[in-house]
Specification:
Helix content: 25-40%
CATH architecture: Alpha-Beta Barrel
Number of domains: 1
CATH class: Alpha Beta
CATH superfamily: Aldolase class I
Shape: globular
Oligomer: single chain
Largest sheet: 7 strands, parallel
Distance between the termini: 10 Å
Number of strands: 9
Structural class: alpha/beta
Strand order of the largest sheet: 1-2-3-4-5-6-8
Strand content: 15-25%
Number of helices: 10
Radius of gyration: 19 Å
CATH topology: TIM Barrel
């Protein structure tokens, strides 16, 4: 409970962690390095995960046609108006950001961390099956200059669901990736999705219980989004499956937080679906409502993050 004495939330928020670590307001600046994904370019498949839009996972990154410097300064300009003394995290968000020649990775990562003197960390979203020893060594090298965070898209621990969503790798690959990243002293953030088709509340909670036994430093949680022009949208139209209600999502997520090791930073509890493409759930667009309802549920249950964790 000690982490939350000075926090309005009952879980270890990213904002609270960043202020603790960097002593200032810190923002992520999403950059687009023009990467693709082995689950889209034919190496694994050409369709990607069934919930991914045609443009991949980079709908909220910068414009890939712009230089990194231009991308960064456009977003910095917006932030700077309200937070003139803010610091920044260079965040490669779109698609699989370790999927490319090592020469490109070295050039683009170093360019990113040198965009501005107030960049305090490099965050890289990728897949667990795209982390060669050569790439890990490069990330460890950069980690000597400033912190490197690696975000892994796990989504679920359940293999049947992973096959259904066309994730493209086995759970053992994820486990190896976490071990390798930690061996190279890199911080690990894991992304999971609540409400994947046919998963029960117990299955979703089991995913967090499983992660509680790994040496990870952060987690991202959001509800499944059914987006237009995706394989998932076709499935939903032809054979509708249950999409979590707001009450169900809040109940499940608050339970997950109770099982989550109190030292794991919660980077996100709700996602950003493109408004014009979102079919369901429409309640996810009301981010502040979702966050407030989770806070209320934690209070009503008298939960704090980790209260049910074996590692508490």
């Amino acid at each position: 409970m000690e982490k939350y004495i000075n926090s309005q939330h009952r879980y270890y928020t990213l904002d609270y962690y960043l202020k603790e670590r960097f002593k200032d307001k810190v923002f992520k600046v999403a950059l687009n390095g023009n990467f693709t994904c082995p689950n889209r370019d034919g190496k694994i498949s050409k369709t990607g995960c069934i919930f991914c839009s045609a443009s991949g996972s980079g709908d909220f990154g910068g414009n890939k046609a712009d230089s990194l410097d231009t991308q960064f300064n456009i977003i910095k300009g917006i932030i700077h108006e309200k937070w003139p003394k803010a610091k920044y995290i260079a965040y490669f968000q779109a698609n699989t950001n370790t999927y490319g020649p090592i020469e490109k990775l070295r050039k683009i990562y170093y360019e990113a961390i040198n965009l501005n003197k107030d960049i305090v960390a490099l965050s890289i979203a990728t897949r667990p099956d795209c982390l060669s020893e050569e790439i890990l060594d490069l990330l460890e090298e950069i980690n000597q200059h400033l912190p490197v965070w690696v975000e892994l898209g796990l989504q679920t621990i359940h293999e049947k669901t992973a096959e259904f969503i066309n994730r493209g790798y086995k759970l053992s690959i994820f486990e190896k990736a976490v071990r390798d990243l930690r061996k190279h002293h890199l911080e690990v953030i894991v992304h999971i999705i609540n409400g994947l088709p046919y998963e029960t509340k117990e299955m979703m909670i089991d995913t967090v219980k499983y992660l509680d036994h790994f040496d990870i430093q952060g987690i991202k949680i959001h509800s499944l989004f059914v987006l237009k022009n995706t394989p998932l949208a076709i499935i939903y139209q032809n054979n509708p499956f249950h999409v979590l209600t707001l009450d169900e999502y809040v109940d499940i997520t608050s339970e997950q937080l109770a099982y989550l090791n109190k030292n794991i930073v919660v980077h996100r509890l709700n996602g950003d679906a493109p408004r014009d493409d979102l079919i369901a759930p429409l309640w996810s667009l009301k981010k502040l409502v979702v966050m407030n309802e989770i806070d209320k549920a934690m209070k009503n249950k008298d939960y704090y993050q980790g209260i049910k964790s074996e590692n508490n």
